[in-house]
């Protein structure tokens, strides 16, 4: 299959369970080995030294991956690509500069939490004590703190009620940037239609269809593969 997303674009991916959606994100993020070719900014990811490639990914997971014994703010600060003064030697050698860098990381973490609509009252509370909606906001803020070129969101609305889902859709629209693309996997069709510029339907690890939100659902291949086919009675 061939699939592409441009900077400034939000790509929505839908499909039945087991159709390869999360595996696709894991392959982009190099969490699993893959065949075929994956290019970022025209460079194949296999040719990139992972840490020195200059390409940063922000990622959320179906089950939020946060550190429960750290505060919400500390969790987000961990995502910062600025690692100055975070090691023992670096902190000792540049004590004043290290403290300044840490204050900057925490300041930006607050801004990203606000962007992700996490209530300020919980910024300094342990993340493990927060409800699912806040945990998802923390993970979103940490992904943004990476200053990523690509944001990968794996079912970010799973487990959220209607109001929380609508708020998340607003967050995803607000983080749109011409300097990065966003790829979203989700089962909630209305949500995908609201946040996406283009929707891709997966089936058995292949692209079954691709097109603008709304229009994609009239494609006969999508009706058969994803929505099911209604058979008239004789």
Q: Would you mind describing this structure in some detail?
A:
The chain has 234 residues and is of the alpha/beta class. It has a domain at 1-55 and 149-234: 3-Layer(aba) Sandwich (Rossmann fold), CATH 3.40.50. The chain has 8 helices and 8 strands. It has helices at 21-28, 72-77, 88-93, 95-115, 132-145, 162-174, 189-195, 220-227; strands at residues 10-14, 39-40, 43-44, 57-60, 150-154, 181-185, 198-203, 206-211. The strands form 2 sheets. Strands 4-5-6-1-7-8 form a 6-stranded mixed beta sheet, sandwiched between helices. Strand 2 (39-40) and strand 3 form a beta hairpin. Helix 4 (95-115) crosses helix 5. The longest helix has 21 residues, at 95-115. It is globular and about 60 Å long. 34% of the residues are buried. The model is unreliable at 230-234 (pLDDT under 50).
- Class of secondary structure makeup: alpha/beta
CATH third-tier fold name of the domain at 1-55 and 149-234: Rossmann fold
> How many distinct helices?
8
- Percent helix: 25-40%
CATH architecture of the domain at 1-55 and 149-234, by name, is 3-Layer(aba) Sandwich
Global Rg: 19 Å
CATH superfamily of the domain at 1-55 and 149-234: P-loop containing nucleotide triphosphate hydrolases
Give a brief outline of the structure:
The protein has 234 residues and is α/β, with parallel strands linked by helices. 35% of the residues lie in helices and 15% in strands.
Primary descriptors:
single chain, Rossmann fold
Topology:
Elements: E1 10-14, H1 21-28, E2 39-40, E3 43-44, E4 57-60, H2 72-77, H3 88-93, H4 95-115, H5 132-145, E5 150-154, H6 162-174, E6 181-185, H7 189-195, E7 198-203, E8 206-211, H8 220-227
Parallel strand pairs: 1-6, 1-7, 4-5, 5-6
Antiparallel strand pairs: 2-3, 7-8
